Structure formats: structure tokens, C-alpha cells
Amino acid sequence: MPADLRDFIRDRIRRDLDGGSAGVVTRFPPEPNGYLHVGHSKSICLNFGVAQEFGGKTYLRYDDTNPEKESEEFVESIQRDVAWLGFDWEGPTFASDYFDELYGFAEQLIERGKAYVCSLTADEIRKTRGTLTEPGTPSPYRDRGIAENLDLFRRMRAGEFADGEHVLRARIDMASPNVNMRDPVLYRIRHATHHRTGDDWCIYPMYDFTHCICDALEGITHSLCTLEFEDHRPLYDWVLDNIAVNFHPPQIEFSRLEVEYVVMSKRLFAALVDGGHVTGWDDPRMPTLAGMRRRGYTPAAIRELCRRIGVTKSENRIEYELLEFCVRRDLERAPRGMAVLDPLRVVLTNFQPDAETLTAAWHPQHPDLGVREMTFSEVLYIDRDDFMETPPPKYRRLTPGGMVRLRYGYIIICDEVVKDASGAIVELRCRYVPESKSGSDTSGLKPKGVIHWVDAETARPASIHLYERLFTEANPNSANYLDVLNPDSLRAMEGWVEPAVVASDQRAFQFERLGYFVKDAVDYAPARPVFNRTVALRDSYKPKVP
Questions:
Q1: Nearest residue to 107 (alpha-carbon basis) of 118, 115, 98
Q2: Among residues of the chain, what percentage have pLDDT more than 90?
Q3: pLDDT at residue 2, as a whole number
Q4: Is-catalytic flag, 31?
Q5: Where does residue 535 fall: left (phi above 0), alpha (psi -120 to 50 degrees), or beta otherwise?
Q6: What pTM value is reported for the model?
Q7: Which one from 171, 233, 266, 533 is the annotated catalytic residue?
Q8: pLDDT under 50: residue ranges of the chain
């Protein structure tokens, strides 16, 4: 990203550096309980971006304190996604790297009278926490003595108690106007196997206790997080103020990335996967970074999106069209090719076997991409949408008795429409004009339209997946997301692709007049190509943010 970007976080970093701060150390701390989604990209680009701009470093730290939901699969997927976006990290580190230190700090709080073991159930704790207008009720176990609390906590660590039998709570203020400060839980019992520590631990720290301590231990100079953690900042500060650490990072909040027609919840994504509504976390319809990568979205486009929306404290939901605009802009340089999705057979009645081989540039504005050869034979395929028996006014494609130019090829004239017994059109019988070869046309004919085509003799059959938005409403939520799933989010077609596209080492292409497509990263094989449409060619959208 440009070094001259200005926002309240970068301005804060500049002031800190001017005031003598030794450097910039940030962190990106995902929980490995699912795949990253496009909402995470803003935090990734911000944390890694500011560290790069100011000569610092960024830790990739996994918040792995919830063993029932975490796995190595998710750990590996997160690293793939961060690397795909173009960033390098320190580490990776894990909250579990610090389990011994975290436990020691918990005992320290107990010894200082700042934490106690509570034997209320989770429901009882919720009922006594109070409301936004009413204070909470102190736990009957709040006044346990230090020795008893240490004994109970150590027995929790030793595995003597069942899940939920006890928790460790901070002793702060049950009347605090900030509900997060009403004796929050710091540790709970979970007899579950951890993906890294196995069965070494049966008590696990809570996020609000873990996160700030890990920040301090790693020397994070600017703990950047989204606005939902603003109310947690007093607890972040309280923990660090009441334990023996030598460093106290500042927590700074910014607005999260929200996109229309998208949900930003790993829990909902897991429900979509488990419910069979999508094929997996990397389904190209999913707003996970893995799904977007498989669909053909580029890391440069995601980074450009984050640059355009900037960093503020104002919550807003951006238009999905802005994301598509950034993708189109980056893919404009992709090589061109031709594909036919719904083939209509065209027979050239005057075909000459010695017709010249055709050539076409991979991209008319980028000659460095070179050219490809195209064959031209007696039978061609055009898209069925490019022919109409009774056309409306200003129709510019093929009609009975009409003519059209084949892209990079010849002008053809439709002489006869062949139908089957049911009246469906099965074939067009046409003449081509030999003198009309593209680039050396001497025919004098001026057809109004140009259409794409493939040679039926050499074209390769291909599965072509047309993707639309996963949801039909701009603001899906956890209550209605299944009701607003788009039944037409995937349309699979069996079409034909020119052979040079299949033979090319390139992965992304513009199929002329159809959109940008990518070879599927999972199912593609040269013997049976599969292409995913990344984005259509619509380009009327004009972004509000330059």
C-alpha cells in the first residue's frame, strides 16, 4: 500500500514514533475455528500494512483457547490465506504457547485478591450479571479466601472437577456500568483434547484474559481490533494493570468491513457447509478467502478494496459492486479467449478445406502476451442467444438472411434454419465470405454485429459454472440467512472452449462477451476442464471512493 496513506491509526503511529516509540509491532490474531472471510481482509491489510509502511513486523498469532472448535485444518488455511494476500509474518505464534505464563498470571491475580473461584453455573452467572440499567449481584463465592481460591484453582488445573463445576472470575465491580467489568470469567474447565497441547490442560483461559497478555508478552506496540471490542478495552487494561508485566500495549479500535449480500460469521459459514447448502469452506460462492480465491478473485483486488474503503470508526456496509469493480479492474489484463455456453450448431455450406489458419492476440492492448492460433472448419458453435428468428428492433446479432462477423474470423450469412420435429432450432446453415477475413477484409460488407464462436472440430468440452450472489437480500443475518439463500447462485453449464485456452498455463481468462473466468483449482483437469465465472463484464458501476 502507498506509504502516504492517512487515517487516524497511521496518524497515531506517526505521533508515537515522533514521541520516541522504538518501532511498530502489530499482530493478526484469528481463532483457528474456521476459514478466514473477506471481512478479515481489512484487519489483515491494516495490521500487516502499517507494519510494512513503518518498518515494523506483524505476528500471526492463533487464539487457540477453545479446543472443541479448533483444528490444524483451520490453522493451515489461515496461513494460506494470509500468504495469498501477499503478507509475511513473524511466527506463527499461538496462545497455547503461553499457557504456562497465562496460568501463572491467573495465580498472581488470586494472590493479589483480584480473582476468585466461583461455583455458580453458567446460567446462574448470567442471571446475576445484571442489565445495562441494573447492577449485577455479587457471587456468594466472591469472598472466598486467597488460600481456598488457590487450592480450588490448582485442583481445577489438576482435573479434579467436571466441566462447568467451577470457573475463575476477576474480582472487579459488579455495579460497573460496563457489563464486561462485572467479574468476568477468566478460566473455565474444558476436558477436551487441544489440537496442539493434547490433554495437557483441562482448563482454558478466556479471550479477554489471553489476548492482552499475549500482546504484552510479544511486545505489540499497537493492538488494532474492530469496534465490537471497544467495550472490552477497560478489561484489557485492567488485566495488564493488575499483573506483573513490563509492557502495556494500547488497544485501538476501527470499524469492521461489512459487504452487502454477505454474512460475516464463521458460525454461519459452518452451518452452510454442514447443512449441504454449499460444497465446502472453499465453495466459490462463499465469501471466505479460500472461496474467493477459487472463484478467481485476486489478492490485488482485495487489497484495493481495503484501500478504497479506508480506516475509520464509522460502521458502514459497502456495496458488493465495489468488490466486483476492484476484481474487474485487476483482471482487465487477463488474456482473452472464446467459449460457447449454450451451443447452437452452424454448418458452413461453402467451406473450403484449405481455408487459412486464424490468429488472434491474447489481449489487444497487451501485445507482450503474444498470440494464439485458431482453427476454422465446416462446423462451428455459436451461443444460442446470438441467433433470433424474429428479432426486436436494433438487434445486432444473427438472423435468418442476416449477416454477422465472427470474432477474429469471417462474416457469415444465415441461409437456412433447421428445426427438429418439435420445432426447436437445431442447426443453422450459413455461408461464410472468404474475402472477409478479419484484418484483411476486402468484401465491402458491413455487418452490424460481432459474435464469439468456437470450432466444433477442435473445441474442448468444458463444465462452466456461473456464480451469482449467495443471498438474495442485501443485509442477510443470522435469523433469516437460510430463508434468503439464492436458489440460482450456481448455474452449471456444459459448453465448449477454444483449445488454446485449455492448453495455456494461464489460469484466468476473459471469455469475450461473457465475463472473467478461472480454471477451477480443485476440479480442473486438461481432459475435462472446469471453469468458474469470477465476475461478469458489467462495467457501468462507478465507485464513490477513488
A1: 115
A2: 95
A3: 44
A4: yes
A5: beta
A6: 0.94
A7: 266
A8: 1-2
